[in-house]
Write a structure and sequence with these properties.
The structure is a single chain. With about 130 residues, the chain is α+β, with helices and mostly antiparallel strands. The protein has one domain (about 1-90): RNA-binding S4 domain (Structural Genomics Hypothetical 15.5 Kd Protein In mrcA-pckA Intergenic Region, Chain A, Roll), CATH 3.10.290.10. Helix content is about 35%, strand content about 15%. A hairpin with a 2-residue loop joins β1 and β2 (about 40). α1 packs across α2.
């Protein structure tokens, strides 16, 4: 359903850039959503053809509105309502970050000894 007036926080939630609408509104309040370099409020109306720069936890998006969407739909349908015009440098940075991502889990055979390792050490040291 296309509407004449649609808030930016509702639009960003509907196209699935944010998991909840309140997260989208918080991003607007914290100056993470910009239109033509200017910070915008969550209540700003969205129009077809507008370009927005949106910073999420994972990525810095640059999107162009191609259609208005006022309710949340499947991702495959949501991507038809905007055009991702994120610069290639940002996409390269994300790929590089993913390549060096550390899971935080210890590498095999490193770190603290297991129970078996402790028993073997106790037998070795004679205690």
């Amino acid at each position: 359903m296309e509407t004449e007036k649609l808030r930016i926080d509702k639009y960003l939630w509907a196209i699935r850039l944010f998991k909840t609408r309140s997260q989208a509104a918080d991003a607007c309040d914290k100056s993470k959503v910009k239109c033509n370099g200017d910070n915008i409020k969550a209540s700003r109306n969205v129009h077809v053809g507008d370009e927005y720069e949106v910073k999420t936890e994972a990525k810095r998006w640059v999107i162009k509105v191609t259609a208005l969407l006022d309710h949340r739909v499947q991702y495959s349908e949501a991507v038809n309502n905007y055009q991702d015009i994120t610069p290639p440098e940002e996409l390269d940075r994300i790929k590089f970050q993913a390549a060096v991502f550390n899971t935080g889990k210890r590498m095999s055979k490193q770190g603290r000894p297991t129970k078996k390792d402790k028993r073997d050490l106790d037998g070795f040291t004679g205690s």
